[in-house]
Amino acid sequence: MAELQTMRVLDNYILRSIVQIFISAILIFTFLYILIDAGTHLDDFLSNKVPALTVFQYYFSFLPVIFVQTSPIACLLAVLFTYSTLNNNNEIIALRASGLNFWKITKPAIIFGLIASALVFLVNEKFAPQGASLAQEIKTEKMKPAATDGTKKKIQPIKNLFFYGMDNRLFFIDEFDPGSKIVRNLTIISQDNLQRMTEKLVAQKGEWNGSSWKLSNCQLTRYNPIDQSLDGDAPFYKEKIMNINERPEDFLKQRSSSNMNIKELKAYIKRFKGSGAVATLNNIKVDLQQRIAYPFACIIIIFVGLPFALTTGRRKGLTFASVGIALAIGFLFYVVNAVGLALGKAGLLFPFVSAWIAPALFMAAGFYLIRKLF
Question: Rounded to the nearest 5 degrees, what angle is found at the Cα of 87, between the Cα atoms of 84 and 88?
């Protein structure tokens, strides 16, 4: 009974330290992000006389996104500093000498990692998509920067835009430039009231002329809605004015896949299945798998860092070296994850593999280090 009580006290002590450092790290990362971003755009805010309330709303709406992006590395830092302190004070040696194995010593960190992963999943699903959409809306509509010559600076193009438009039309747009009002690699699927495909329009480029869309290098294919067979020829047009009700400002109101939650992404995949827009559908599937896989980075990155933090020996020098090595591994996780997603969106990896390759590799590396060192 006394031993159990002692373990509870020890676990609470370690867990409390991890939580405190984690919260401090999140606050520091958030402050630095806002400070750097605000400093970068300070001239734009001042020259355009953006109200302070608008700036506050913009960064406040972006807080969930910052939390999701920085949580894994904050978890790593919290666990490393907590156990490195124990290591420096010879407490790790004392715990191991008392008969506690690696898993009992690190139980608080593992529990914290699981809770942090669940929290990141919740924020990433419920708050981050809405926050990112609101931040984009504020930036587009209320914080448009103007150049010194009176003209508007170029707004960054929006990539991977897809939505359900008017007249039962599904839109897939690889890139939309709000400044020039040009879309690239446009696919429009027209459906009847039973959601059966009746027409497919593919265009390399579309340009808004003020009243309508002029498409370049486009092909229009019509289908029999009953059996989906071709209905006549599929003419190709070098240039063609198309009757599309959506205007450029309507495109700005749409949400990209990065601003959608799992439920919304699944709904789009189901709705667009069989549309023929293979590249866009593949991007949506990669984003869906990333939404599911990313929160696990918190617990995975902890598994990789713990073996270094608990290594005893020349403790003081080794502790600082271990922190540096673990932080490098954390950075490497982000790089491998980014490469995997890029390969998935390029069609070189299956969407599931592209999103889970980094978590799988680093989890395997963590278990390997634990078995080798302990």
Answer: 90
Which string of b and e fits 315-332 if b means at least 16 CB within 10 Å? Answer: beebbeebbebbbebbee
pLDDT in tens, 149-181: 444 455 678 887 878 777 778 888 888 988 888
Type of residue found at 277: A
Tokens of 132: 């990112």
- 103-143: per-residue pLDDT in tens? 889 999 999 999 999 999 999 998 998 888 888 778 777 66
Q: How many residues does the chain have?
A: 374
The Cα 167–Cα 170 span in angstroms is: 9
**Residue 144 dihedral angles phi and psi, to the nearest 5°:** -70, 115
Amino acid identity of 357?
A: I
Sign of CA dihedral 313, 316, 318, 319: positive
Write out the two tokens for 368: 């390997």
What is the DSSP pairing of strand 236-242 with strand 197-208?
Answer: unpaired
Which residue type occupies 360?
Answer: A
Nearest to 137 by CA among 200, 64, 57, 192: 57
For residue 357, with 0-12 CB atoms within 10 Å meaning exposed, 13-18 middle and 19 or more buried, which class applies? buried
At residue 317, does pLDDT exceed 80? Answer: no
